[in-house]
Backbone:
């Protein structure tokens, strides 16, 4: 179930440590954070990650964003979350007869404990489970993993070039502090503050790299390796693919009528995994 959603994950993590977030790498050269600052930012960010923030329905409620109009990330994301959840429910129900089968699966429990211990440093305050005792808990956890690897990554990654290619819109660094008083900001001060050309070039390279599409794209719901051989899982995959087609049509119909398109969570732009 999860293998397609980890496609190229180890590869991209290795590359990121080698050329992107390493000392002297693109982030170190192109941003005002520096390598040491990046480590601090990551540390602080990890301290804030919770199980609630990783589960879209819980996150939306927690942030009070349930009723904000025209919030396409929420609307499209919830459609994908529900489609993934329905697919996962079918698979888990097929292979696990009940709660005892979940709690008694030693490999599953070891995997979840490894994530809790090494991925979240054993922080009970994160709310991330260290074990799974019921079918319902397993379904939610697997849905979170699949959603994070596919839709959530698409939402935060696919728009990086759109938002950052025009440097004043999202400058990677500032060479001067912002003005503290109104009326004291002038064009030359602004130009002297945003990154200079060489830094901008480094960041654009990173944005182009992160936004590029692989030739071997595996869109959400496409499983060419055919990990499942039984009839029921294959039927569930077809149903999942059909639901994704419906979501695609809904998003494209809305975008056709909209002044500003939001297409980052279109299943045609959402890959199974974090494969950059």
Residues:
């Amino acid at each position: 179930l999860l293998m397609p959603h980890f496609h190229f994950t180890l590869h991209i993590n290795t590359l990121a440590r080698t050329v992107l977030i390493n000392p002297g790498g693109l982030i170190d050269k192109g941003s005002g954070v520096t390598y040491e600052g990046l480590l601090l930012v990551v540390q602080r960010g990890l301290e804030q990650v919770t199980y609630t923030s990783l589960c879209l329905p819980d996150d939306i409620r927690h942030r009070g964003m349930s009723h904000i109009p025209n919030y396409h990330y929420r609307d499209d994301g919830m459609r994908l979350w529900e489609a993934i959840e329905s697919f996962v429910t079918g698979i888990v129900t097929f292979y696990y007869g009940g709660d005892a089968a979940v709690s008694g699966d030693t490999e599953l429990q070891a995997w979840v404990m490894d994530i809790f211990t090494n991925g979240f440093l054993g922080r009970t305050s994160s709310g991330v489970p260290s074990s799974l005792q019921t079918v319902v808990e397993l379904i939610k956890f697997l849905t979170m993993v699949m959603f994070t690897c596919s839709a959530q990554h698409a939402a935060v990654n696919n728009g990086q070039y759109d938002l950052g290619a025009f440097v004043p819109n999202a400058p990677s660094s500032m060479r001067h502090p912002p003005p503290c008083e109104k009326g004291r900001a002038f064009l030359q001060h602004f130009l002297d503050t945003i990154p200079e050309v060489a830094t901008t070039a480094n960041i654009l390279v990173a944005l182009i790299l992160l936004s590029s599409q692989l030739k071997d794209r595996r869109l959400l719901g496409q499983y060419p390796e055919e990990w499942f051989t039984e009839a029921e899982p294959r039927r569930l995959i077809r149903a999942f693919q059909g639901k994704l087609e419906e979501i695609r049509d809904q998003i494209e119909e809305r975008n056709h009528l909209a002044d500003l398109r939001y297409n980052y969570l279109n299943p045609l732009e959402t890959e199974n995994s974090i494969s950059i």
In short: Residues 231-257 form the longest helix (27 residues). The domain at 3-157+213-269 is CATH 1.20.245.10 (Lipoxygenase-1; domain 5).
